[in-house]
Amino acid sequence: MAMAARRTDGMSGLVFHTTRSLTTRAGRSRALSVGLVVATVLTTAAALWLSSRLYDQRQAEQRQQDILAAARQSALNFTSLDYRRYDRDSGNVLKSATGDFKKEFAAQTEELTELVARNKSVSEGQVLDAGIVRSDERTARVLVVADSKVTNTAVPKGEARTYRLQLDLVHEDGRWLTSDVEFVG
Prior knowledge:
By secondary structure, this protein is α+β, with helices and mostly antiparallel strands. It is built from three helices and five strands, in the order αβααββββ.
């Protein structure tokens, strides 16, 4: 009967302890690696989500700036008319118009041309303020406050007028165009 030799120098305990220590270090190392991978994935996901939110926010801000710029220009065109250049001025209104508003304004252009020429009307508009009431990716409603100095045969020295306009805009072919204008307040 052969018996296993038993070491009396304490080496078997050291070998067991060293093996256990190596196994524990390998487990910790593996856990640390998994933890780093999980942290990297979560950080990347958070960065992508934040980037997406920032992009969306910038797009919305740019859309609002584009809407306000279009509304301001449209209101300025609408309140700045000169009988000596009425064809050009009415053309500017039509360039930034669409839909029924464009059709109605175009239909009245001949009559307005005669009226403006007969009265020697000049209107110099200035947009004071504009604010978006509502907007989405295709439509917007903007309130505009504009002043205008109007001179004509009835008021040769001029008269100051203040307009409060509600403009409805639509996004067509990459541009914001005025689809309706109402005088409010």
